[in-house]
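Task 17 of the worksheet. Students: predict the tertiary structure of the chain below and write it out as structure tokens. Keep your answer in the requested format; marks are given for formatting as well as content.
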Amino acid sequence: MINVLGIGNVLMGDDGFGPAVVRAFDAAYQAGPDVDVVDIGTPGLDLMPWFADVDRLVIVDTVKSSLPPGTMRLYDKGDVLRYAPSVRVSPHDPGVKEALLTLEFAGRAPREVTLIGVVPARTALALDLSPALEAAVAPAVQAIVDTLECAGVPVRRRGGEMGSGRVFSRQ
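Model answer:
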């Protein structure tokens, strides 16, 4: 089982990047039946059910960085777990590291993790993405495709002859 998760608040401008990317992926592509594509919104610490007992986890979210807005970086499980968890400043901050560490301890963590992170330009009240993040949607969708294909998962453009994975939204 593979979960592709978009994390973010669609009411807060660039924070809605994760949900925008998984929706764009679902609109353009079909993945194998063992792939769930999910817009999980802003779950806070409630990430563990989405992370537990899956083989591979692909997360799309904004990341804090001094790099220019729209810069995309890919992180693996080791990158995410490299440093101790930081202080959570809001109940909406995703607890990715905390959830992974807890599941590692319990023996239920995903074997493979890919975080597709993009630096936001603005995270203020707004319903649209900044131009920098709008331009980053297509490369992030391609990163999902590449990640799944590297894992041996068939991915086809919509209209192909393949069954689609399940798609959910928690917004």
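Marker's comment: Residues 71 and 118 are 5 Å apart (CA to CA). The chain has one domain: 2-169.
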